[in-house]
Structures are given as structure tokens and as C-alpha cells.
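Batch 3, record 17
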Amino acid sequence: MELVISLAIGIVFGSGIWLILRPRSFQVLAGLMLMSYAVNLFIFVMGRLWVDAPPLTPAGTTPNPAVLADPLPQALVLTAIVIGFATTALYLVVMIGSRGLTGTDHVDGKEPEL
Amino acid sequence: MSLHWTQHLILVPVLLPLLVGAALAPLTQGWHRLKYWLSYASLLGLLATALALIFMTDGGHWQGGMGIYLAANWSAPFGIALLADRLSALMLLLTAVLGLASLHFTRTRWGRIGVHYHTLFQFLLMGINGAFLTHDLFNLFVFFEVMLAASYGLVLHGYNAERIRASMQYIAINLAAALLFLLGTALIYATTGTLNMADLAARVPLLAGDELALFKVGATVLALAFLTKGAMWPLGFWLPTTYAAASPPVAVMLVLMTKVGAYVVMRLWLLIFSDNAGAAAGFGGDALLYAGMATIVFGAAGMLSTDTAGRMAGYGAIVSSGTLLAVIGYGQPTLVTAGIYYLIGSTIAVAAFLLLIELIDRIRTPRSAMLALTMEAFAVEDAPDEPTGRGVPAAMAFVSLAFAACALMIAGLPPLSGFVAKFGMFHALLNPHIDAGTGVAAIPAAGWTLMALIIVSGLIAVISMMRFGVRTFWASGATEPPKVHRSEVAPILFLLALSVLMTVQANPLFGYLTRASDDIHRPGGYIGRVLSEPTVPGPGSAPGLAPSTLSPQEAP
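Prediction for the assembled complex:
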């Protein structure tokens, strides 16, 4: 399972890097989104991979850490998703503004001269 | 038993701008005067709080010069600890001072051409203040994002094609850096199991083998995020374009944000990789030193190659960032003391210069074409009046004299603060620690190189500033003095006066900075203090107890 997860994260992140190096702003945006997915997965995995282990303790019982997943990375990933979502949406707005004002979707705001 | 009221002061620099910013959001632009004054009141409150915190930390009112606020009464390391010590109190003061200057500058024009300028400005202050106060890595990420999100809006302020192009790149870079920040934080959590900085510093010496290697990878990735913010070469190419494009009052705050990156590196590196960090001690110091030197070279070359004032200020900020990083990486406490003085002095100098640029531009183009375009794009109905009230007499003389003062400060020539900072750094570099083994105080080659670079970068700053000054004031053929309003002159005068004050009061200031630098170089006391901070007992429960199981390290 470790290998599959790490390969998946690597492929998604790698695709993201390739995309943010492209000249069109939509490609950059898609790249940033892919990278943030990969990072979110990465944070999640940093709490170690668990199967059948909830991050919750039922009320009235003494928690046994051996059968519980680490809840902190799950909390962190929630925050990271929210912040990443908001900033990406903001980038999208700037992108649309740039398209309207410059008439091109090139990241430099002008088409390269051939 | 409850917290002493002074401990709540630690939270004020975060809460006050948050509340004021939120209160300003629903007000329409018709209330711009009220918005301005509310914003002003908030900044005066921040200034007073920062002064009070300096008084509390340095006046011996708090044990060890540190005030700790445990958020939601969770004891460290489980909850978020906010901590004010001498260094962070000083940075809060710097934030409030620059914020005040920037806000004052917006009074006649810039604050009126965007709807939520003051709200965003308050949120920016909240993010910066939070980053100075928090001692939890993930909370630091959140404050960074608050600061950045507000700055995205502010860089766009006065919407035109140039600004939108610059902010596209600025946002993309910072989103990528935020991802690096998250990766680094996750790796650090995976290897140490904590995000509290004090707890982290206590656990790093216990790491070994693979864990230590992974931890170093995590710390490096994390540092890349800060250093992108701090514009280290080769991560700082975004900076000159963004600075030149942003409106002057926003650019002032951007200068401060660059220093937030340097501040976090200083705090975190000296804490986590201090001398008693076991196998990890001193990790990355050389990298910081050489990368800092490369940044100085890059900034100086950029300064020489550009002839627009905005970009010149940007490269000046890069030079000062590079100097700071090299100072941190050099690993000598006395040098860090002078480095903090340099940080404050150079931030004020570049900020004053950025504000001045707008006034200088009016000599070249009396009618501000940029503003007209802005108002068209933003569909502002009631155009702000031309600066009303009395103009300033002898505007030309003021602008040129202020320019000369800024040039002196940026280049580090006597008699202003830039010279004192450089003198302090050279003094520290020339008086290294005496080696215990041989009894000889040798200055390493890196020290000489750093000194040479600082001198050469100062010389280059003189050359490029002089070239710009001659072209603008003597060779441009401008005979009509620029229209300058009092509210635009006051902040520049204020910043210049501060610089003079820093020079005149250099001795007490250096005393304070020495104590501040001692604090951050002695992590032992800090770790024990944070981890043993008692929580406030709830009603009817037993008195609070220190939950720490780790024994704090001994102070060196």
C-alpha cells in the first residue's frame, strides 16, 4: 500500500509541476490544483497509513492509542484543503481579470513574439 | 485564578485588526472617511500594544522576558502557544510603525480607489502580527496564508494591466511556496510528532538515523517556503516586478513581508539547530551563508542594471534580505544583534524610498496617467478630488533632500542608521569568538568575503542611486515643483525621523537588541518556559499543573 500511495502522490505532483511550467494561465491553475491534491494526500499519509482505525474515541472508554489513527494530520489536511481552495479560487478570479484586461490567457499578459 | 490582564495583551495584535477589518467590510465607499479613521485607531492601538509588550518583556515583568498565551487554555505542546519576547515585540512595533506610515499615505488618494482597501490592510496586519507571535508551525502556516491572501488583494489594488500581470506571478509563486510549507510541516510532524516549536526544539536532539535525515529534508523544504518569501537567490525573481507594480503604500507592507520570511528563518533556525541540538546542530548554516551572499550579489547586480526607481527599491530589499540571511547563517550571536538592527534600519529606509518614488514620479509625469486608468477600470463613480488643501511649500527641495537621505540609508553611509548597522556588523565580524582550543581569534574566509560583499553592495547602491538622482533632479529639465500633499509628506518625514532617532539612540537600542539576541540564542530557557506554562484551572477543578514529560534542556 505504501508503494501505491507514494507513486500516486509522486505522479500527481509531477504532473502538477509540469503544468505550472506551461505558458497558459489555465494550465498553471490546473497544475497548482493537482499539486495541492498531492500535498493534501501527503499530509494525510504523514500520520501513517492505518486500516480500520478511527481517529475517534467513544465516550466513556479509555482510549487505546494502538488501535486509533492519528487525528492531527486529518485536522491539518482539512485546514489545508480549505485554505488551498480559497486561494485557488482567488487565483482564478485574477486569471479572469487578466484575460479581460489584456485579451490573452498567457501568463505574461502578452503573446510571445515569434 | 485567572490570567493576569497583561497576558491578554499578547492576543491584541491579532484580534484588534481582525475585528476592525471585519467591522469595516460592510461599510460602503461613501463612508471612506470613517473607514480611514477606524483603521487609524486600530493602528494606534497596535502601536500602544507593541510598546506595552516591549515594556513588559524588557522591564522584567515576565519571567525570562517572555509572555505566553495558551490559546483556548490547552497546555503546550498540545495547543497553540502565542509567545511575546523581546524580538517579537520589536517586530510588532516595526509593523505598527510601517503600517501607520503606509496608512497615512493613503489618506488623499490610494485609500479611496478600492472598496475594501482598509479591510484587506487590517487583515494583512493581522497575518503579519500573528506570524511574529505564534509558536506553532501549522498556526504559522495559517497566519502566513492570511497575510498572503490579504496581500494578493492589496497588490491588485488600483487595478491595471501591469499590476494584474505582476500579481498573477506573485500569486502563483506564493501558492507553490505554500505547498512547500505544507510538505515541510508534514514531514516535520511525521518525524518528531509535534508542531510546537519549543517541543520540537526539545525533541530534535533525540533524533537519529533515518528519522534525522527525513527531518532535515522536512526542514529544508520548509525553509524553501520562507526563503521564497524572503527572496533568497534563486527564489526571489518575483520580487522586483511585484514591488514596482504595487501601489506605494502596499509596497511598503510588502517590504515588511519579505522580512517576515527572514525573521522566521532566524527564529526557527537558531532554535531548532542550536548548538545543543545534538547531531543536527548547525544544520544548513553554511547554505544560508552562501545563499545569502549570492543574494547580495544578485541584488547589487540588479540595482546596477535597472533605471526604474521601483525596481531599484526591490533590488535594495533583496540586498538587505541577502545580508540578513548571511548574518543568520554565519552563526555568531553578536553578529545577529547587529543584523536585527540592520533589518529594522533597512526596512524603514526602503519603505521611505518606496513612498518617495510616487512623489518623484510626479516630477517626471505631472498628471498621473496610472490613476486615471485605475478609476476607469474600477468604475469609481466619485473620482477622488485632486489633493486638496494647501500643498507643501518647497516641494522640490523636500523631495530631493528626502531622496538624498534615503540614498544614504540604503547605501549605508554616515550619518544615518544604515551606517550604524554596517558598522555594527563589521565590528562583530572583526571580533569573532576566541577559539577555545587554540586561543586564537581567527576570522574565517567567509567573514572577509561577507564584509567585502557588504562594502561593494553599498558602493553599488551609491552609484545607482546617484545615477537616478542626477537624471531625475538635475538632468530632467523639470522646473515645476510636483504637487505634494501634506498627508504624503508626513509619513516620509516620520520614517526619516525614526531613522535619525535610531542613529541617535543606537546605544540603548543595541542594548535591547543584545538582550533580544541572547533570548533567541538560549533555547534551553525558552523550551522549559513554554512547556511548563500552567493552564488556567476551570471552575471547581484542581489547580493547573505542568503537563510536560520532557525535561527541558539546560541553558548553555
